[in-house]
Amino acid sequence: MASIPQLTLNDGNTIPQLGFGVYKIPEAETAEAVVTALEAGYRHIDTAAFYENERGVGEGVRRSGLDRSDVFVTSKVWWTDNGYDSTLRSFDASLERLGFDTIDLFLIHWPAPRSDRYVETWRALERVRAEGRARSIGVANFHTHHLDRLARETDTVPAVNQVELHPWLPQAEVRAYDAAHGIVTEAWSPLARGRVLGDPTLDALAAKHGVTPAQVVIRWQLQLGNVVIPKSTSPERIRSNIDVFGFELDADDLAAIATLESGERTGKDPDDLG
Q1: Which of 58, 233, 246, 271 is most buried, taking the most CB atoms under 10 A from its CB?
Q2: pLDDT in tens, 37-77
Q3: Catalytic positions, please?
């Protein structure tokens, strides 16, 4: 199997472009899922305090037998902990649950603009990065106006902006802003929680390339330049989702997928939370 491409972040660190998400995997099942993913070739695991499975992620990494330095791990502070001191406490708790000395990427999970604490949260992330306890820092679910405010009021450009992104919601404006400012766009819910997978356009492209519809969408994400983190608990699908380097979508394929845009979200609009 081809090795997973690495993207260089604006702080000089690198991130594997294809990762494994663990949202809604129960804590008791997480370690085994992580081991399966790492055995399949993933080297990037995405968790969060809100997922309540950070301990399982840390256990899975240790159980895999891989060196800690070979596995890129992301975690996030939940929006109810936004704020300077509360974010520092949340980071310490995530580090303790993972059982690590450092976190490769730590994100603000949601800006929660109504509570208006994401700027001070970002300053706390700047501190843990300066201390070397987070190698890279970034944000999730930030609209461009949230990013503009960070640019005005703080000193560090996020390395990553992780947003809901799939064929129904390709986020062209966010991706263009991120690219212009040296921010890597990362896709959560890359398959729209599986709901795009009954689409006849994707079925046709899958048949054309001899792959699954999910592989078509993951390949589309990679060709857009996104980091993508599909999630599954099925060992077969975990392995299938990483097997996307033996084909390439052509211009007609990409144009066909572009027709699926509807603006539909599977999660909340970031301006509506908190």
Answers
A1: 58
A2: 999 999 999 999 999 999 999 999 999 999 999 999 999 99
A3: 51
- For position 3, what pLDDT does the model report? 87
Q: Are 15 and 72 in contact (CB under 8 A)?
A: yes
pLDDT single digits (tens) 205-220: 999 999 999 999 999 9
Q: In whole angstroms, give the CA distance from residue 24 to residue 27.
A: 9
- Given the structure tokens 């306890």, which residue do they identify? 133
CATH architecture of 8-194+226-233: Alpha-Beta Barrel (3.20)
Pairing mode of beta strands 14-16, 6-8? antiparallel
In angstroms, rounded to a whole number, what is the distance separating the alpha carbons of residues 7 and 171? Answer: 19
All structural domains of the chain with their residue ranges: 8-194+226-233
Q: Is it the case that residue 1 has pLDDT exceeding 80?
A: no
SS3 155: coil
Using the predicted structure, report yes or no on whether residue 121 has a pLDDT greater than 90. yes
Annotated binding-site residue? 109 = yes
What residues have CB less than 8 Å from 145, skipping those under 6 apart?
Answer: none
Task: Provide, rounded to the nearest whole percent, the portion of the chain with pLDDT above 70.
Answer: 99
Cα 187 to chain center, whole Å? 5
Sign of CA pseudo-dihedral 137, 43, 26, 263: positive
CA 117 to chain CA mean position, Å:
22
Residues 6+ apart with CB under 8 A from 272: none
Is 0.90 topped by the overall pTM?
yes
